[in-house]
Amino acid sequence: MAISSELGKRVVTAVPAAIVAVWAVFAGGAPLAALLAIAAALSAWELFRMARAAGLTPFAVGVALAGLVPLVVHARYLAIWEPHLTLLALVVPALLTMALFSRGTDAKPFSAAAVTLLGICYTGGMLSFAYAIRYHDYAYGDVVMRLAGREVHVASGGFLLVLPVLLTWATDIGAYAVGRTVGGAKLMPSVSPGKTRSGAIGGVVTSVLVAWLFVRYSLQPAAQLSFTPLGIVLFGVGVSVAGQVGDLVESLLKREAGVKDSSSLIPGHGGVLDRIDSLLFVLPVSYALMGWLLVPAPR
After folding, report:
1. Does pLDDT of 108 surpass 80?
2. Would you state the pLDDT for residue 119?
3. 44 within a domain of the structure (yes/no)
4. Pick from 209, 215, 262, 265: most CB atoms within 10 A?
């Protein structure tokens, strides 16, 4: 009964969240920027909460700054504001100045500034690559599709962004299924005792397979973009490895903080950071790989 109740919580929270996320991905613009800003701010809050549990004292202003990063990226895309590199660099001396005047030496001012800056980059900075992928230089305009007998205009950049998200889910599912079935040696028992080497390999294989299917039957016909066969393998492996490393990194941080979940914001799922820890690594890696491996779809 407890298992059924827990599963019910997961479904009730996961389905609406997935619908909103998919809508924001294809809508792009302000909806996507707002979703990324909220996710970044909540993730930063959870990260700072864990940091405090580990004896560190990050600045609360980092939560707001993390949420601002995707909005700044959105503003830059709209040509509303072009942030100068010098202005961005001033965040570091600003945090150190705050440490100087608000923290004594006993309050670990050095770690306070360092953890705050890490939180901003780790959450807001990494998530902003989702916006960059959605508006990738290779994604040209809208794609006309027929759904239920009607023509629907869908942004090709939406398909690009769905790909790394889909591969992240595929890696999780493949790793869990193979790990539970095959078992064997642990991948990194001191960090995440439940993960196995066979599961990690299974996640990579599943990622490559799903990448091939998505590119062949969705990305090519819908967005007119593709990868070479070698490119599909490299992209699938790169995304899968990045996602698994991202998951292990958050597990490492939670172990230092002595907590099971980053928070209890999402019933049945833990915290926001628990849900997007893999994506935080996948998104920048995907953006880089797309720049190297994407090619026009074959005619």
Report:
1. no
2. 96
3. yes
4. 262
> Which two tokens mark 166?
């889909």
Q: Could you tell me the CA-to-CA distances from 133 to 112, 122, 165 in Å, in that order? A: 32, 17, 11
The structure tokens listed for 123 are 């959450």
Domain that holds residue 275: 2-140+152-296
Q: What is the pLDDT of residues 42-51, one digit of tens each?
A: 999 999 999 9
Tokens 């899968």 sit at which residue? 240
Instruction: Answer whether residue 122 is part of any domain.
Output: yes
By the 10 Å C-beta count (0-12 exposed, 13-18 middle, 19+ buried), 83 is classed as: exposed
Indicate the number of domains in the chain. 1
250: left (phi over 0), alpha (psi -120 to 50) or beta: alpha
Q: How far is residue 82's CA from residue 78's CA, in Å, rounded to a whole number?
A: 9
Across 82-214, the runs of DSSP E, i.e. the strands, are: 142-147, 150-155, 186-188, 192-196
Is the CB of residue 10 less than 8 Å from the CB of residue 268?
yes
Residue 297, SS3 per DSSP: coil
What residues contact 293, with CB distance under 8 A and at least 6 apart?
227, 228, 231, 234, 235
Are 33 and 134 contacting, i.e. CB atoms less than 8 angstroms apart? no
183, part of any domain: yes
Global pTM exceeds 0.85:
yes
- Determine the pLDDT at residue 106: 67
| Predicted local distance difference test score (pLDDT) of residue 141 | 59
pLDDT digits (tens, 9 = 90+) for 249-268: 999 999 999 999 998 888 76
Spell 246-262 as b/e; 16+ CB within 10 A means b: bbbbbbebbeebebeeb
pLDDT surpasses 80 at 147: no
**178: nearest Cα among 144, 204, 211:** 204
80-107 per-position pLDDT tens digit: 777 766 777 788 888 888 887 776 666 6
